Amino acid sequence: MSTLKTGFLTGLKTTWTLSKVIFPITLLIVILQYTPVLPWVINLVSPIMGIFGLRGDAAIPLVLGNALNLYAAIAGILSLELTVKEVFILAVMLSFSHNIFIETTVALKVGVKLWVVLLVRFGLAAISAIVINLVWSGGSDIAQYGLAPKVANVPDGWLEIILLGLQKATFGALQLAIIIIPLMMIIQYLKDKQYLQKFSQKIAPFTKVLGIQPNASMTLVSGLVIGLAIGAGVMIQAVQEDGVSKKDATLVFIFLVACHAVVEDTLIFLPLGIPIWPLFLLRLGIAFVLTIVVSVIWRRAEQTKGKEVLSS
Question: How many CB atoms lie within 10 A of CB 306?
Fold first, then answer.
């Protein structure tokens, strides 16, 4: 019983920590959505879309996806007539970079530096789009979309806009609690029964390849399954209680930026009529390569610094 109580209290604490980020940002973004701010940003970035092999109005789903979430981005894509290649490029870019305000803020709470977050997310999105545009000569057919998401009624007046923002922000916090609290109770149970230690040992070869210590394995798996924002709740607890170093937390985050919520964030693109297996394999492959490269560079930098300290 004490195990469940501890897990419940930890879940409440983590939910409160993340809700303080998610609630105000969600409220602000919903309000901005109905002001001239988002259209202004879209007009600002439209001229550079050609670099990524996209037409100017493709900026709409990119801005919506980064300011809000993937569902908003997909609604934006469905409102446009795009080629299969353009939709695939957008799907890849949005897989790496979406919900940027909330997911970046919770990453900062873990201790990951802001420049790392922005460089990895926007860098992966831009580079992957440019490479796909240069390498892929096909995909010129107009994309045939499947079922479109339900379009919400446009609020009338500032009061309705603010009420909608409060509603979405509250729902986001409650949804977080529904996921985080049971998850923390399960994790606490697995810890007390020593299952997590056994699990870490099982996937030690996998984490070793990435240059990550085994005690960060639960954080890695959580992010892969449930996503970056919610996985950050597990990450915060791991940093505080399990002795996960800032280096390992950063490496896990880099991996998860490229490949998180692999089931939901991949299947969500099914209605767009694009091949999802290449999307999944691309995300997974880039996650492995990037994390390994950063880990090797980091380790060599530490070794060089250690030698300099010894020589001095």
Answer: 10
Name the strand (E) or helix (H) holding 163.
helix 158-192
Q: Which two tokens stand for residue 64?
A: 């919506």
Q: What span, in angstroms and rounded, lies between the C-alpha atoms of 275 and 277?
A: 6
The structural domains of the chain, with segments of one domain joined by +, span 35-153+194-311
Structure tokens at 48: 């550079």
Q: What element of type H or E holds 217?
A: helix 217-226
Task: Let me know: does 188 contact 11? Beta carbons within 8 Å.
Answer: no
Residues contacting residue 230 through CB under 8 Å, at least 6 positions apart? 18, 176, 179, 180, 183, 222
Give pairs for 47-51: CB < 8 Å, separation 24+: 51/126, 51/129, 51/130
Whose tokens are 């997974």? That residue is: 284
3-state secondary structure of 69: coil
d(CA 160, CA 211): 50
Token representation of residue 270? 């099914």
CB of 173 within 8 A of CB of 23? yes
The whole model's pTM is what? 0.74
pLDDT in tens, 148-183: 444 456 787 888 888 888 888 888 778 778 877 887
Give residue-wise pLDDT tens across range 8-45. Answer: 888 888 778 777 777 887 788 778 778 888 778 778 88
